[in-house]
């Protein structure tokens, strides 16, 4: 049995909204980038280009004036080498004039240049045009903008002079796999996409258990690590340290521990929970820093949280004591003398009016943490009442805090 393997290029970048007005550069600076992700050469002779308004045949670029600016491009050919890029340019890309946008792109050496048998790409690309590049026989097609799905949000306008780039080569033409170019120039024609290198690991919420400790108590840190990049994060770690000199920089003597993380998909989050030890009475500035090769945004790599150690914390711990509902949540940590009793935690105004019962039930753990968002609470003093009964013994405690705006 003979198995035929058909090679299909991948559309990797589309520039439909060229920089400047249509009356200047117009459609001549539009381009479509394709990539050969195989180990064999693809002959693009006999392939066609369509924006669903017009159909053009792909042909070799034969205007040698392009070599004046780009002497090492590949022209007069339709052969796309393995793991290489080709650019489909408007035939008028090299048209001479005094316009500031003439031949604006930094196209790398050895890029194959193609065009169409017409004076424009399709009917002239718009930001709403999907694209098909196809060969009728044996029926091979590569697409951009999900032309067979009219209900999704692509294509869309990425902005003046900005292209749309594919994020992952192996995920194909899907709604979530296109992003505006992140390159300062607005596009990367002939180069690896800027989206391929968008690694960004960010520190999210930091929580201490308990938020205020006593001397000798074990402190547990909970750190949310968010993948804010377009690419998966793997091989990353975090460093937890005590910023003793408050300079917001990690030194070797300040390091508490290093923790390795797991594979994180784009947009996902991992919560790392770890014991960070015992601390002396006083204030301790705890820092958490992410480490990921190629991280493009160091501004969100580090976060801090204040740990206060006091001689005795009691059974109820609040943080912060001055509470801004628009900015954070009130963390309420409780310690029970023994599990299995009935706990009631309630919030009252300073005048004694009940605001809310946070807990009113049997508790099977010896400690716990809850959060209150304070929505609708007026500015002023509030009281949290702790009432716990276990084995016929009744424990009570009161703590105050302030709601501010």
How are the elements arranged and paired?
Blueprint: E1 10-15, E2 31-35, E3 42-43, E4 48-50, E5 55-60, E6 79-80, E7 85-89, E8 112-116, E9 131-135, E10 140-144, E11 164-166, E12 178-180, E13 201-209, E14 212-214, E15 219-227, E16 237-242, E17 255-260, E18 269-277, E19 282-291, E20 302-310, E21 316-319, E22 322-323, E23 330-335, E24 342-349, E25 354-362, E26 367-372, E27 380-390, E28 393-403
Parallel strand pairs: 7-8, 14-20, 22-28
Antiparallel strand pairs: 1-2, 1-11, 2-7, 3-6, 4-5, 4-9, 5-8, 9-10, 11-12, 13-15, 15-18, 16-17, 16-19, 19-20, 21-23, 23-26, 24-25, 24-27, 27-28
Protein name: LTD domain-containing protein
InterPro entries: EF_Hand_1_Ca_BS (IPR018247), Lamin_tail_dom (IPR001322), Lamin_tail_dom_sf (IPR036415)
Pfam families: LTD (PF00932)
Radius of gyration: 31 Å
Mean pLDDT: 92
DSSP helix fraction: under 10%
Task: Extract low-pLDDT stretches.
Answer: 1-5
**Intertermini distance:** 76 Å
What proportion of the residues form beta strands (DSSP E)?
Answer: 35-45%
Topology pattern, helix = H, strand = E:
EEEEEEEEEEEEEEEEEEEEEEEEEEEE
């Amino acid at each position: 049995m003979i198995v035929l393997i058909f090679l299909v290029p991948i559309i990797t970048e589309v520039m439909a909204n060229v920089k400047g007005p249509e009356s200047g550069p117009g459609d001549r600076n539009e381009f479509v980038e394709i990539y050969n992700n195989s180990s064999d050469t693809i002959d693009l002779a006999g392939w066609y280009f369509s924006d669903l308004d017009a159909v053009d045949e792909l042909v070799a670029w034969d205007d040698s004036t392009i070599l004046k600016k780009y002497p090492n491009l590949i022209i007069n050919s339709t052969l796309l080498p393995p793991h290489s890029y080709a650019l489909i340019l408007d035939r008028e890309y090299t048209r001479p004039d005094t316009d500031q946008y003439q031949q604006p792109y930094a196209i790398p050496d050895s890029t194959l240049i193609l065009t169409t048998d017409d004076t424009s790409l399709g009917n002239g690309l718009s930001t709403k045009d999907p694209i098909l590049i196809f060969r009728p026989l044996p029926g091979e097609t590569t697409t951009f903008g999900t032309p067979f799905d009219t209900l999704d949000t692509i294509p869309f306008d990425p902005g003046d002079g900005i292209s749309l780039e594919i994020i992952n080569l192996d995920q194909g033409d899907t709604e979530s796999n296109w992003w505006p170019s992140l390159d300062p120039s607005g596009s990367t024609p002939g180069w690896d996409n800027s989206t391929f290198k968008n690694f960004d690991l960010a520190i999210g919420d930091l929580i201490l258990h308990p938020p205020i400790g006593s001397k000798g108590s074990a402190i547990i840190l909970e750190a949310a690590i968010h993948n804010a990049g377009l690419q998966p994060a793997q091989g990353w770690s975090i460093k937890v340290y005590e910023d003793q000199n408050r300079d917001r920089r990690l030194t070797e003597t300040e390091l508490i521990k290093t923790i390795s993380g797991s594979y994180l998909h784009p947009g996902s989050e991992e919560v790392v929970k770890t014991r960070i030890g015992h601390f002396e009475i006083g204030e301790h500035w705890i820092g958490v820093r992410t480490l990921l090769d190629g991280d493009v945004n160091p501004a969100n790599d580090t976060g801090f949280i204040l740990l206060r150690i006091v001689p005795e914390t009691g059974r109820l711990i609040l943080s912060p004591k001055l509470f801004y509902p628009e900015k954070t949540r009130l963390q309420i940590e409780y310690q029970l003398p023994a599990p299995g009793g009935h706990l009631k935690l309630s919030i009252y105004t300073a005048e004694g009016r009940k605001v809310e019962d946070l807990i009113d039930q049997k508790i099977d753990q010896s400690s716990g943490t809850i959060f209150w968002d304070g929505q609708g609470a007026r500015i002023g003093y509030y009281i949290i009442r702790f009432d716990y009964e276990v084995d016929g013994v009744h424990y009570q405690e009161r703590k105050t805090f302030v709601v501010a705006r």
